[in-house]
Amino acid sequence: MAYSDIRVYSKHLQTPNVIHQACIGNWSSQRDYEQAGEQPQKPGQVDMVFAKVRSLFYNGDIEREDAELTIRLFDRDTNSSRIMAVSALQNHIKLVILKSTRRSQFNPVARISEVDLKGTIIGMDFLTSNTDEIAILAVLFHNKETTKYHIATFHFDLQNRLPGPLTIQVGTSQVVSSPSKSIVLLKALPNIDRSLIYVDEEKITLVTVETPTGPGASNTPKHTYRSSLQLPKRDCSEDVNETPSGLFATDMLPLISACATPPPSPNPASDQTLYLGSDTSELYRVNIQHLTLSMQFELISGDRPVGNVMQVLARNQFAIVPVLAEMDQEIVLNTDYLVYSNDYGDGGILAIKEEEEGINLFAITELQNSSPILDFCAREPSLPGRDSLYACSGMKGEGTLKRIRSGVSIESSGSSGQEFFAGATGLWSIKENVGDAFDSFLVISFIQSTKFMRSGEVGSLEDIVDGCGLDLTQPTVNAGRLWNGVIFQVLRSGVIVAEVASGTRHVWQSDDGIITSACLVKEGVLLLGQISAGVSSLLLLEFKNDTAGDLEHVPNSSKVIAKITLKAEPTTVHCWTQWSNSLEGVVPGVDRGDILCCIGTLEPAVIVYQIKSNEMLEIYSESLSQAGLENVAIPHSICLLKGHKGHLKILVGLRDGGIITYDWVASQEQPFSHSPISGMGMTLPRLFKVGVLPVKFVFSCNGFVFIVDHCDLQLVTLMGSSKYTHQTLALGRTPRRILDITSKKLLLVASVGEGFPFAESRLHLIDPDRASYEPAMEKQHVVAEFVLKQGEAVYCLAEWKIPRPGKSDAVYICIGTGLFSPTGSKASAGTPKSGRLIVLSVKQSKKVERKSRKFELDLRWAMGMQNPVIAMSTFMDMKLLISNGAVLKLFALDLEKKTLVERASYTGLSPIVQISTQGSMICTGTKRDSICFYEYQPGVNGERGFDKIAFLKSARFAKMISDCIAISPEFVVGVDMSGGIFGVGYSQEDPNCQHTLLDRFSFHLGEIVNRIRLARIWPADIRSMAGIRLLQTANKNTPGEALTLQTSDYSKPSGGQLSSWILLPWTTPEHSASADAGFSSQALIGCSLLGSILGFWRLRPQVYQILSLLQSTVQTTYECRPILGNSHDRYRSLSSPGANTIDGNLLAQFLRLDHALQVQMITRAIGMGRIVEEWIRQTGMSPQEHEFFTSVLKTDAVDGTAIATQCLAHPQEQTLCRTTNTICHILRYLQNIDWHQQ
């Protein structure tokens, strides 16, 4: 594969998790909306804006700024924000007067003024004022010349409408605080007029501000420093192994990291509540008396580390009658809803409720935060679709290993507990009559019996033992309402239908088999899954009342009206009765009255049938077999959820505790995926685990209930909007490095914990299959540990496989470390003085079962090094490359002596931080010299000769590399500490490569990416999901009788075709000589310190031409411009000149625009039509596929509503429409693509 022409598509797969700022408010008033002709906001709606690391979010548009910003809003009128202050890191503040504006033409700036001060700005806030004529901005800053902290207040005259700068009065005072103590934050007090507090390392101090009453520069605002409150000391002995003295003293003051106040109280002279959070898990509540200005502390939580952001979302007030009789006045209590961030763990939203006895705290939800991600691995799957990212996430006690998978997550809303439903195998809630508002009966099946219960008036359940007509001595297969007043019970031996009121019943007996599954098709008709001697079948069983002719009586006859044979035993059946009429028009080919049913079989497989006039026609089948895997994905339960815009979601519960989800939509709206029948809207399925034993769905509505582990009912909600699911594997330490031990299906994690005088490093061997959600079992996934020397830090890990003749490969784990030298009782400067190369082996205990397997990390040997071992890589012929400072060393394994022998070395100019190899080519990343290429030259006399590492070339631009990966012997991709990604190449034939490596592409990400990994490549014709190989079969019945799902004259390409037309894989498998052979969309994956997941794909040159021309147009379009007006090209070239890269985040805005505006933008892109037509011609697509690409693609607005996309009538404009539609299809494919999906 040639690497001389590299074109890259970049996008965020997961945006940053860390929150650096939050702003709560109602952005537009009622009258402003009425004047603009738009709909007002709903009463009580709260808008929340998060600033995630140099990002300002407003209405979904994002612009990243290179300079650090602090933003504060002044909102005297509760309906609209009037003035905004934006500060630089030091010396400068910009004031923006805001006005009402329309969303379609966003221009809220009425006036801009600036103020200057001399110092580093730490914090600022607008003070509460009793008049609308002025606004007061308080600023806390540090003057480097005087080394003092100061508070400045700027008083703005809002009544001045004259052009020019605002009239400002400034008051400045030196902060009253110990010179050796840092001041960490400043906060205004909404309930106390013209007052603020500041917090240093020891205390909280209250300050009031007096505004001059008369005009003139001589009248200067005055600051009065009021009472102070000493911060409470905390006991840290438990955190540092009860160290009584030294670096960690037992009595330490908390370092306050964030502060929040509730909204202003409507009642005058109200006391002020203040919340203070620390990064050491304390959450305090401070009450400030309005009259006396006295302060009082209260600790309300000690296990929630708080980052830089804490905000009160809302306050609810309620009155209670006092318990004491002598108190005749009601007591007003508050509930505050507090959102907080965590810089190195999950944040959350809390409800803090005042009660007569004290304060109660309730956790409402978590705000997931994966940052900082110091390392990650893409676990090598045995089959496509099983790819998981394991990220070293968090720090200290919040340190975890997070498993990140593409899929649909679930959220549990409650659990029944094990007491009532212990041993339950099924549950059915039944209405006696279809028009009843509530369910009347509850049927619970156990392994050897059934419980029948009636619902009482106040929600109670009453056992019915006799006289109901049902058989309660056997387990129930299914139960429900046959028609009004009559319910059915399906047993393994037959079916009972009964009228509960009278106990009258009718029994149908299965004479030639056992019933394994059943469901209601329509009133009076059941679908049964049956097995007999060597035969599996489906039966349509109809019940009638021939005498009365009234469906309100028990039937007196029953017969089988249809029967078909299956290849395997049916394990579950589900008919979509409540959706049947609405399926018309949603699923092509479904007529009114037709019924679709889904069957799960023991094969295992999922089959979809259409029941049409008592005939059952197979329209779709899919195998769920897992070749070579222990678990078998046998369907255990099936249900269907209906979403917005007619989208259907099929859920298949598995016996192994997993859930498979399909999306089924009309073919013209479906995402790109394989389809067994043209027009079929079944998308790529996703799998996620919820337990270890069968999942049984009970009912579906906004949520659904399923039985977990045969002992518990879980009420859960399907989180369809979540693209990635996160599973947390707790460590309680800071994870720094991770290695996927592919031969053992284990993970090795190096972590750092508290210690004295050094932090303690430890290796954890983790079995990810043993992860549990149970709190008591939160660390059962750690199967072995290895403790390193005191003061030893792990820098790199590698798996080394040594071939052995006639045996399996010997597997060793290589660890590179650095040793810190002490100076007295404390660690020296932050660089290690020496290092070690450690080699371990993994041993498994032979007497332990597979499910509870135990391991040991056995030390084989260790070698001391003069410098730390920062990077390493396995090499050809049982060799190992390591970096020892700036020296690149090559070691070979001596099997006889069982030791490592140094064979060659090369001394560079700067320390090597990463090594990657391809064949005999060696690539290194350094701290100052960017990327360097070397060539390994073996000795001419074999083992007795001298090997050599020859330097070839280095990159043109000096960079501080954080990671690099050799894609081929001629091409390397690297990431640097400036937030950029780039590719460089080496070619002996190219004359431009005489002095330096050739630049292939570069792009500024704005985030520091520590690690990049390459996803595995798969043949494009393999459709899979989470390790389940899917074999597709189409309907073999007569075409005229079967359900035809063809809705148009065009044919949608498969995912493999789309991938081969749009993308090129980064690598070519050895068994294929061409990149055009049809492979999956291979991604280059990166994780950043901020918790982002980024994906990079290689584009075909002509697709790059199309998107590059579109990118130039989008960045100059008013509707897509950055909020703060930055140049896109300038920003993406901050770390190095941007080249040959498409910004997927920017182009995603194009799909949000209406069709007419899209066509206007394509009109400005000169030559776009010709390039698109040339690309279509070169793909060789059929006329039907060409018609699909030029058809209209429905897009979604920002608010989720569908945008009508009607092509224009003029012939020339129709040509532009077809070009626009083609580009939209390309962008939609790239927008939906994942790191392991086609």
UniProtKB/TrEMBL annotation:
Pfam family, one: CPSF_A
Residue stretches making up the RSE1/DDB1/CPSF1 C-terminal domain: 779-1151
GO cellular component terms, A-Z: nucleus
Keyword Nucleus belongs to the record: yes
UniProt keyword Lyase present: no
Chief location of this protein within or outside the cell: nucleus
Protein name per the record: Cleavage/polyadenylation specificity factor A subunit N-terminal domain-containing protein
Chain ranges of the RSE1/DDB1/CPSF1 second beta-propeller domain: 421-678
Top-level taxon in the UniProt lineage: Eukaryota
Signal peptide location: none
Composition skew (Polar residues), residue ranges: 215-230
Compartment(s) where it occurs, according to its Swiss-Prot or TrEMBL record: Nucleus
GO molecular function terms listed in the Swiss-Prot or TrEMBL record: nucleic acid binding
